[in-house]
Amino acid sequence: MSSSLYVNEAVEEAVQHARPERKKLGVLFWICVGWLALNLFGAIFANVLPLPNPLFQNYAAINAGPSLHHLLGTDDLGRDIFARIVYGSRVSIEVSLGSMLIGFGIGAPLGMLAAYRRGKFDAILSAIMYCFLAFPAIIATIAVLSFWTPRSLFKIIVVVGVASIPLVYRVIRSATLSCSTKDYVLAAKVQGASDGRILMKELLPNIAPIGVSFLLIGIATVVTLEGALAFLGLSVSPPTPSWGNMINESLAILQQNPWLAIFPSAAMCLFLLCLNFIGDRLRSHFEVSEVKL
Amino acid sequence: MNEAKLLVVRDLTTTFHTPTGPLRAVGGVSFDLEQNETLGIVGESGAGKTVLARTIMGLQPRTNVEVSGSVLLNGFEVVGASEKQKRSIWGLQVAMVFQDPMTSLNPVMRVGKQIDEVLRVRLGMDRHAAKARAIELLELVGIPSPAERYCVFPGELSGGMRQRVVIATALAGSPQLLMADEPTTGLDVTIQAQILNLLDELKGRLRMSVVLVTHDLGVVATRSSRIIVLYAGRIVEIGSTRDVFARHRMPYTRALLEGSPKISNPSHTRLLAIPGRPPNLANLPRGCAFAPRCSYASDRCREERPELEPADEVGHAFACWHPLPLTQKIPA
After folding, report:
1. Could you report the per-residue pLDDT of A66-106, keeping only the tens digit for each?
2. Domain B7-103+177-318's class?
3. Are A50 and A37 in contact (CB under 8 A)?
4. Within its chain, how far is the Cα of B224 from the centroid?
5. Which end of chain B is more exposed for a tag (fewer CB within 10 A), N or C?
6. Among B106, B115, B174, which would you mutate to test the A interface (most chain A Cβ atoms within 10 Å of its Cβ)?
7. Is residue A167 one of the residues assigned to a domain?
8. Where do the structural domains in chain B lie, given as residue ranges?
């Protein structure tokens, strides 16, 4: 009698253990999310935070190393590097989010529609997109930005955003393509679901994980691209700080003041690492749960 | 022809235009289906069963396919209807159960929501009514504690349970015709019987008709009233289940029967495989499509294609120049 009770309990316990538990994302993932959130917070509230003016030139402290007064030191004009990095993150974040908004806003719906409708619409649109893809995006952006003067943040966002449309289109189209041949799409169709409903309810949630991880990679790529443009002097014009700008300016005095190159590079590097790690983590998280099905 | 026929298929032909030329997957298929009847469609892989089922539903790719003939479903002509028109019968008059329950449910939507869709969008139910009805449907298809299962994702259910959910979604619009395209192929044998019995029971309770597409004669043996044997996209034998099993005339039907295992066989009996392979649909032989694999084939079979003979008084018809004699013993 008592033994059967025991068995029941054991079975129950086993069943509870067998229940699929939500897989954890890990501490490092949340540290990365925290770091990005901190960056975002700094970029948004830079005006309000107790930071020195990033444009104020303190001739009493030129090329100073890190100290209590200037957390990360000053540059060759005596400007506070920490303040400039925080303000500089604004440019990177604005350019990356803005251009991804354009890229995904136009590329993703087109990609989904093309993959779902197929036929002529898909053939023509894909042909156009692949023509754009054949042209290296970075050369195109450099070319357009060097002629489209005076440069402003808005123009950079538009140029980078438009350049990212074919890339987003390609990824979203192929993701949708592999989803739309699945039986559940057909099943929804024979239940009488409209095309819009199938796109929004059946396809969109299923390609979302791929879209999100590509978005994170895209943001990282744009941050680097902005850095490269700034390095070539094609981003926002000085004295407005951006990470790329700062690295560019630091080159001239690399030997006197290496901090000036190291800190903005580190800021950019950490930002990118976190983004890539989060994207990678999310991808494997969703992939595993798909295999489990 | 009385009015009560649910489905009337006449001379249905589906041709795919492939880069290597036209491929006729379904060629001139005609049959009727009564209300509350189960029809089995049997054939090898590649015989055109799935294409036939999908053509009857009106589910073809948007391009490179040509459908001719007529499919009258409750008076609605499916062939040539626009997608919008077909949407009005899909789900409400005809529904479909797919082969693989692993892929026929949306993996990121709770199972209850997938049943809700039809109820809310098509039948205009409000949220609470739809949920109540969805739980009722889950109970109907034999899912234990349906109220809890309403909230789980498909990944948390077993294959058999998922197929039950698929059936529940198909039944949501109370269709009169349920097309089951190999509903048990992806399942264990024990679960297969459960699902088939469930379909049979539901058919009786909900007074609907079922078209059961399968490659397994054992599946349709006890559950369908009539059987269509399909070969290379054409009907080669049609008749009541009893006639097809006991009085089949077409050598292909016999070969299929001999190819399925029987419990009465002594152990280690070798199953008879049909020699050769199903014909290439893009390049069919001039005569009978089965002739190259048939031990009775004569020159006439290779030259001239036999048409489906007019049905006898019990509706049994076959397409063969050398039908098996009627005294043929029932293959145990």
Report:
1. 777 777 777 777 788 888 888 888 888 888 899 999 999 99
2. alpha beta
3. no
4. 11
5. N
6. B106
7. yes
8. 7-103+177-318
Q: Decide if A220 is inside a domain.
A: yes
Is the model's pLDDT at B260 over the cut of 50?
yes
Say which CATH number the domain at A232 has.
Answer: 1.10.3720.10
Indicate if the pLDDT at residue A164 is higher than 50.
yes
Distance CA A215, CA A90 (A): 18
SS (H, E, C) B112-136: HHHHHHHHHHHCCCCHHHHHHHHHH
A120 → chain B, closest CA residue: B63
A191 is a domain residue: yes
**In a domain? residue A1:** no
Mean predicted confidence (pLDDT) in B45-65: 83
Residue from B21, B127, B12, B142 nearest B80 by CA: B12
Q: Which of B270, B305, B266, B269 is nearest to B284 (CA)?
A: B305
Domain count, chain A: 1
B230 HSE (CA, 13 A, CB side)? 29
Here the tokens at position A171 are 């990824």
Q: What is the structure's pLDDT at A165?
A: 92
Domain that holds residue A286: 25-292
Taking only the tens place, the pLDDT of each residue in A117-130 is 888 888 999 999 99
In chain B, residues 163-222 whose CB comes closer than 8 Å to chain A: 166, 169-170, 172-173
Best B103, B118, B137 member to test A by mutation, with max A CBs in 10 Å, is B103
